[in-house]
Amino acid sequence: MTTTFQYSAGQNLCNEIGGAVLTVLGNQQPLTVQALIDCMQQAQRDAYDYGECREQGMALAIAILTKFTESE
């Protein structure tokens, strides 16, 4: 059975990756793993406070996506 915390973390992860995909495509950039990482890292560096859950979601998404670039 899934706990609320696990569901929330998984949902945040999916939301951040999905948001990055939409941003990259909306900017008419090639959809690559590195482009998704760059998009989320740029969001982390801006001055906007996204809240703890979103910040954790971005960090987790970047960590997971980075594993794909390491295997290339």
What is shown here, in short?
This protein is mostly helical and 72 residues long.
Rg of Cα set:
13 Å
Shape call: globular
Number of strands: 0
End-to-end Cα distance: 35 Å
Instruction: Count helical runs.
Output: 3
Q: How much helix is in the residues?
A: over 70%
- Unreliable segments of 5+ consecutive residues: none
Q: Beta-strand level of the residues, as a percent range?
A: under 5%
Characterise the protein shown here:
The structure is a single chain. The protein is mostly helical and 72 residues long. It has helices at residues 4-26, 33-45, 52-70. α1 crosses α2 (33-45) and α1 packs across α3 (52-70). The relative contact order is 0.17. The model has no long low-confidence stretch (mean pLDDT 88).
List the helices and strands and how they pair.
Layout: H1 4-26, H2 33-45, H3 52-70
Helix pairs in contact: 1-2, 1-3, 2-3
Top keywords for this entry?
72 residues, mainly alpha, 0% strand, globular
